[in-house]
Amino acid sequence: MARILFTVPPLTGHLNPALAVADHLSAQGHRVAWAVHAKQIGDKLPPRSWVYPLDAEDQTPALDAPAVRGLESVRLFFEDYTLPMAERMLQPLEAIARSFRPDVMVVDHQMPGGALVARKLGLPWATMVTTTASILRMSPMLDAWVAQQYLALQRRYLEPELVVERPDLSPYKAIVFSIESLPGAAQARLPAPYVFVGPAQGEGRRPVDFPWDWFRPDSKKLLISLGTVSRDRDTRFFEVMMAALAELPEVQAVMVAPDALAAQAPPNVLVRSYVPQLELLDRVDGVVCHAGHNTVCEALSRGLPLIVAPIRDDQPVVARQVIDAGAALFMRHGKVSPAVAKASIEALLNTPTLGEQARRLGGELRLAPGAAGAALEIIELASLPVRDSRPQRPTLAKVA
User: Fold this and answer.
1) Are 334 and 270 contained in the same domain?
2) Domain count, the chain
3) Which pLDDT tens digit goes with each residue over 76-105?
């Protein structure tokens, strides 16, 4: 059996696909270990997981909502979050890899430090790509800036012969949790051996209690979510949606938002800070979201049309992809009014072509191999040779 080391950032949208893949690998008898920021996401890992903490004394860089949008927000995320985290994790993760002695590493695309460690130790490794925006060239200026940042990081850690232009994407396999028809061919991609496996379908998540009897059988139903990172940053969007829904009593909406907003919700809006999203998607008629890649794919997998209100980072790119595919409407997150929100919801629920295109994409997504297919791709890499200088078998990590 193979020894497989996962490293992912402390972000739910990145952890969930990794959990699903790790579940398949563990079920097949492979030894899975996690190099993660355990203080932040250790409680979300399966019981008795092998965990190597990456937590530093000064903790992980804070992930605050930037004041800028578009490509500038991508640059700031990279500069303020991805690069500092990579710099801090290089030495601890190298020690972990030398200790666990994996046959293969699985490295989230937002953890370039893991990619550098795998390259230094001569380990086969796969990139896990949780959003199709990560595989696209953004702009000549931004792409050149990213390459320069990676060049400087590599020169501080790797031997010169190991330095490459884009060390973040594996030369073995880049596993994309989407389908190829979503990014399409209109925008150039970064060079890598991509394998599109579709969404992980939520495997590995823990059950969540929910008052299912709140739903009326005769109502149209919506899920409204801005994701786990951004939902508590600004309540205006949620308040506007509540005002719009107050004028649509025939529609019921579950809103993933801070609990404090529950007091001002109209009777047809249920506010919960955490929900069983996949089970809800099986019961609703449409989704209003921030165009987070996981939420978009999970909604489309069930043939659900969307209203997308992108905020920052990869969200505008993903929003454009699903709009161009004919399965979503656009909403301006920061400037939408109750009247516009009401009209958009009515259009979402009464435009047949949106549902038709969502069901078309959903068929493709359901045919994709998902987490099970990703696990097979990883096992293929485990049989590849590593350097003869691989360290001796060490003591095992502590059990969390």
Assistant:
1) yes
2) 2
3) 777 878 888 899 999 999 999 999 999 999
Domain that holds residue 13: 3-198+368-382
For 294-309, give one letter per residue: b (16+ CB within 10 A) or e.
bbbbbbbbbbbbbbbb
Looking at the fold, whether 132 and 244 belong to one and the same domain comes out as no
**Residue 87 per-residue DSSP state:** H
Residue 26 and residue 44 in contact, taking contact as beta carbons nearer than 8 Å: no
CATH code: domain of residue 96: 3.40.50.2000
CB 33 within 8 A of CB 114: no
| Neighbouring C-alpha atoms within 13 Å toward the C-beta of 153 | 31
Q: What tokens does 137 get?
A: 């060239």
Are 180 and 243 contained in the same domain? no
Token pair for residue 173? 């396999």
Is residue 198 over pLDDT 80? yes
Predicted confidence (pLDDT) at residue 397 exceeds the cutoff of 90? no
Q: Residue 270 belongs to what H/E stretch?
A: strand 269-272
Beta bridge pairs of residue 222: 253, 286
In this structure, the answer to whether residues 170 and 258 fall within a common structural domain is no
Give the Cα separation of 76 and 54 in Å (integer): 23
Residues 177 and 78 in one domain: yes
Q: Do 300 and 355 touch, CB atoms closer than 8 A?
A: no
Same domain for 75 and 103, yes or no, is yes
d(CA 205, CA 54): 22
User: Nearest to residue 395, comparing CAs of 154, 50, 11, 78?
Assistant: 50
Instruction: Quote helix, strand, coil % in the chain, to nearest 5.
Output: 45, 15, 40
Distance CA 335, CA 361 (A): 29
Q: What is the DSSP string of 14-60?
A: HHHHHHHHHHHHHHTT-EEEEEE-HHHHGGGSPTT-EEEE---TT-S
User: CA-CA distance, 69 to 58, in Å (whole number)?
Assistant: 28
% the chain with pLDDT above 90? 66
Give the other-Cβ count within 10 Å of 395's Cβ.
7
Residues 385, 390, 394, 400, CA torsion sign: negative
